[in-house]
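Lab channel / #folding
Pinned by the channel admin:
"Please post every new chain as: sequence first, then the structure tokens as a reply. Keep commentary short and put observations after the output so the thread stays searchable."

First post following the new format, from NK:
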Amino acid sequence: MDRYAVAGNPVEHSQSPFIHARFAEQTGQALEYSRLLVPLDAFVPTVQAFAADGARGCNVTVPFKFEAYSAATRSSERAQLAQAANTLRFDADGWFADNTDGAGLVADVQHNAGCDVAGRDLLLLGAGGAASGVLGPLLELRPRRVVVANRTLDRAQQLTRSHQALAERCGTELAAAALDACGSGYQLVINATAASLHGAGVPVPATVLARGALAYDMMYGPAAAGFLQWAAEHGATGRDGLGMLVEQAAEAFLVWRGVRPQTAPVLAQLRARAREAG
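Reply from TO:
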């Protein structure tokens, strides 16, 4: 049976094994999907050992998306733009890297949440692997303005520079800012930092939210609870990243298996499981 896993640290919270098991049932694919806890200083040897043991691929989560891209011998255009990968396929001629995060986020925001990004002002918090993977697809939706805010301004500037040509083609104003000077009144605020995962507070003031804004945390479950509460307290619609997780997983499944599963029933199952657990 073909084997896959989600590789990260931490990884015990991941719902990916449940998602891919449902996708396999739905599409009649025979596969096994597990969690792979990777030591912080040993991503490449750990994944090499997994691949050498006969595995076919893996998803990659924090904090290894940049390392995953660098370790691959071939990569998709979207991974090249992001310089980060969340999906690896172990081919006979080497590892193939892809980044399905942006496609997953766009599908969830546009279709599942019903938020039209075109012509809007968007604030993206963070400049790590998660933010790198989603910035390109967000720009392709042609928002009016995108500001990338990060604790380290230089990282935000590096990310915006690498996407400036795409922003110009899309007619979108793209800028970098520090977290304490990122402006106000955004219709869409996306948290791509690790703040939620580590139990830290929301890293920006509530003035970043326009009335009725969508406040989106790419984390899900208990990790996103604080951000969602913050959004509700300040008149915004909060949404966690569970839908993004399912949508990006479907993209990865397509990369691995050549078939695209249906996401709506799996997302509904996950929401129901979350309500029961809560």
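NK: The chain has a mean pLDDT of 96.
TO: also worth noting, The CA atoms of residues 127 and 155 lie 6 Å apart.
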